Amino acid sequence: MVVLEEDPKLQSVVEKLIWQRQPFKVLEIGCGSCSHIEIPANSYIVGLDISQKQLDRNEVLNEKILADVESYDLPESEFDLIVCWWVLEHLSNPEKVLDNCRKALKKDGIMIVAIPNVMSLKGLVTKFTPHAFHVWFYKYIFGEKLAGIDDRLPFKTYLRFSISPEAIRQFAAENDLSIERLHVYENPRQKKLRSRHWLIDKGWKMMSPVVKALTFGKVDAELTDFIVVMQKKM
């Protein structure tokens, strides 16, 4: 079983919910060049991405769709599992895509969504700083010299408030989706960055309670990202 660093329990939750449906049909939205969870070998995996280069790098897909997910109409009741991993924050209209995915799920199918937490300090900085700053940060802080080149991270980011953890809960409640897991956590990259630079770590720890107090607990300095598993009931 795959144990994901960001959420060690995610794989077991997925297996409990849909493993008995094998073989099943999977859609990876913004599939990029790799998959993030373990999927049975007898599954049929469809990948949809706006980048041909990313599709070419992905070796696990049975079917590749080159398209913009914001304008592509997915077939209704087609998929047992839809994975949307670090995608919605890059879209100008993520609510439309969420609804499109909901319609494309079969009854009792599940959707896994991984998103930065806009209601975190990192999320707000990401939202309100220009893309050029993101590229600089990846290159000189994370050490990724090819950042922003040849369809590589970081991508342009909108990170709408409509995909905050609370907004996702509301979306699920309004659309006959049950939330089977919602895991909010500190991004491993941020943890590693703090562990390598004591000054950043000290400043972050001092800032965290201040940010919470000033925003009445609405903004968290540490819980930077979240993963949610939703199951379609109707």
From TrEMBL:
Keyword terms of this UniProt record: Methyltransferase, Transferase
Keyword presence, Transferase: yes
Every Methyltransferase type domain range: 27-113
Keyword Cytoplasm in record: no
Domain of life: Bacteria
A GO molecular-function annotation: S-adenosylmethionine-dependent methyltransferase activity
Any single biological process term in GO: methylation
Protein name: Class I SAM-dependent methyltransferase
Species per Swiss-Prot/TrEMBL record: Hassallia byssoidea VB512170
